[in-house]
Amino acid sequence: MTAIIHCLRVWRHYLLGARFIVKTDNIATSYFQSQKKLSPKQARWQDFLAEFDYVLEYRPGKANVVADALSRKSELGVTSAVLGDLPTRIKEVLGHDPDAKELVKLAEAREDSTVLA
Question: In this protein, which residues make up the domain named Reverse transcriptase RNase H-like (predicted)?
């Protein structure tokens, strides 16, 4: 529901006065309009949504094959697998960066000056 509210705020000037359909794969969101008990935040959202002429439509994720395929493409996804020990890899990479080498020298020089004081 937060994403729907955000999008409506961003595109408000295009959507006011037009009838449109909001499709969601979250079944709980599709019952938002018929909910009797609302939290204060949900009540504000409902007041905001009253400005628009829209229909909230539930569509199961399996039925939305095109969006599902796009969201699952491996080329578009980000992998976060780190090979080896992370601190060791960072030290290896920093050893090749001239700016990082200079920062390490400055840090070591400052450390030496504090030990002497």
Answer: 2-52
Distance CA 78, CA 117 (A): 48
Are the beta carbons of 22 and 54 closer than 8 angstroms? yes
**25-61 pLDDT, tens per residue?**
888 887 777 888 888 998 899 899 999 999 988 888 7
CA 7 to chain centroid, in Å, comes to: 13
Q: Has this prediction a pTM greater than 0.85?
A: no
The residues, any chain, with a CB within 8 Å of residue 46's CB and separated by 6 or more, are: 32, 33, 38
Q: How many CB atoms lie within 10 A of CB 8?
A: 20
Q: Which DSSP letter does residue 27 get?
A: H
Contact status, residue 58 vs residue 30, Cβ threshold 8 Å: yes
